[in-house]
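Onboarding guide, step 5: your first structure request.
Type a short instruction followed by the sequence, for example:

Predict the 3D structure of this protein.
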Amino acid sequence: MRKFKIPKGYTATNKTIRFPDDVIEQVEDVIRGTNCNFSQFVIEATRFALENLSEEEEAPSPDNLQ
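The system replies with structure tokens like these:
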């Protein structure tokens, strides 16, 4: 599994999404003082999650190991 990294800027398409207030506060605390905005962080977190989901699908499950 790769390490999560706060991303740098890139182009994107606008998409509206609602977040719980506590999640917004946590993300803003993490990115404070960095060159990363909220959207960039969420995009990288989503990519990270998607990559790890595909790794889980590729890995053999413990039930199938003998």
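Each response can be followed by summary notes, for example: Residues 22-56 form one domain.
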